[in-house]
Write a structure and sequence with these properties.
Layout (H helix, E strand, L loop, with lengths): L4 E4 L13 H22 L8 E8 L8 H7 L1 H11 L6 E7 L8 E8 L6
């Protein structure tokens, strides 16, 4: 399994519940995508050949409850940055997510990328 690397917590402006101006949201999305791109490049991950399992662990900045679907939506531009850094289309990702019980100052997203192995049911 590929070692995990950490990405910053998505900005508040990217939350689906945020009522921000479109220009503010666009600026935040571009900045977050660029940050995730650079951190993923720095991690020097091997590029998966086929489908890739994108395991995300959202480590919130505080104990407030969060919806996993909102976390995924807020992370969209981060996911795009990771895919761009790997040089793959993000449609190759199979996403698995969880919200951690632990907290970390400022919040973070722990990311693991591995080859996706399809299992038959």
């Amino acid at each position: 399994m590929t070692d995990a690397f950490m990405l910053p917590w998505p900005p508040k402006a990217l939350s689906p519940n945020a009522r921000t101006h479109w220009a503010t949201k666009s600026k935040a999305a571009k900045a977050y995508r660029a940050a995730c791109f650079l951190l993923c490049r720095k991690a020097a991950l091997p590029v998966p050949q086929g489908r890739a399992l994108l395991s995300l662990e959202f480590i919130p900045p505080d104990r407030r409850r969060r919806d996993d679907d909102n976390c995924i939506a807020a992370f969209k531009s981060g996911r795009d940055g990771v895919a761009q850094a790997l040089g793959i289309d993000d449609s190759r990702f199979v996403t698995q997510q969880q919200i951690s019980e632990e907290t970390i100052k400022g919040g973070a997203v722990r990311v693991r990328i591995t080859e996706y192995v399809e299992t038959s049911v």
